[in-house]
Automatic annotation (TrEMBL):
This is Fatty acid desaturase domain-containing protein. One of its GO terms (biological process) is lipid metabolic process. The chain crosses the membrane at residues 16-36, 95-116, 143-162, 169-193. It comes from the Eukaryota. InterPro entries: FA_desaturase_dom (IPR005804), Fatty_acid_desaturase (IPR012171).
Amino acid sequence: MVCHEAGHNNISSTTWINHTVGFIAHSMIFLPYFSFKITHLRHHKTTSHLDKEEVYVPYLRSDFPLPSAQEATPKDYMDVFEETPIVTLCLRESILHALTLALTYAFRLLDTYLTWNTMGSKRYPIGSNHWNPKSGLFTNEEYAQVMISNIGMMAMVALLYLTARLSSVSVVVVHYFVPFVLTNHWVVAMTFLQHSCSTVPYYRGEAWSRTKGALSTVDRPFLGYVGKFILLGVNHYHTTHHLFASIPFYNLPMAHAAIRPLLGDMYNYDSTGVFRALWRSFNECIFVESEGAIVFFKDTQGNAKRNVKVLGGDPSRA
């Protein structure tokens, strides 16, 4: 979480200190500091805007071979989304299935997002990634920053290689690779749940505003007090962070206490346990409609937990 704070210039009031801490900390966990910072800050400016959001962009109905909402039948959804009978019978409703989905997804997504823009914005050309300074993710002015980030990655590879030579590969695996994989898991699990909930809206066009986007995030008591302490409250006060990203983590509890009463029903909070919440989101947050100014996630049967009622119109197209 120190990486995250440095990326928002919240470690120090001095820019070079933020960059130094952020560069070293990010490189140690194979996150390209400047490259990731650029797209992450862009995410804060476009949260929940379907056409401009940077990451965790929902799939659309048009991404699947599905008829329109008015024409689709239960069989259409079953043909597209149902798993093989043996998987459905043995795993679909089981804890094992939940853990399998959660662990597989969370271990892989961070690296695939960085490398292949998985669940990233579709407005970028195919092949856009965080490693290529000429990628569609970056401008010409950001070329040097991306290259510096890559140098940090190469330095970390060299350090791990040297460590393996001086000690052993097993030392690197036990003391670096295993913690690295676990870190990947928790980072993806946290961020996915912050921005994936069937009762939280996504917007298009003029229906979106930066404030609406910031309020389309979910606060969760991730890992309880331990999570609040170790993860610097990034999950407990995520809505406040999106509203005021320049507030350092140590001031977020005070800011949250002041803001929370003002938000009323606009505030989103979910106390569901981590793996149960992941399982629920995997099942309920499948796609959104390809049209509509305000849309909500739909599940594998094409049902939404919430809909926008349009006077004189069809709610499914809202």
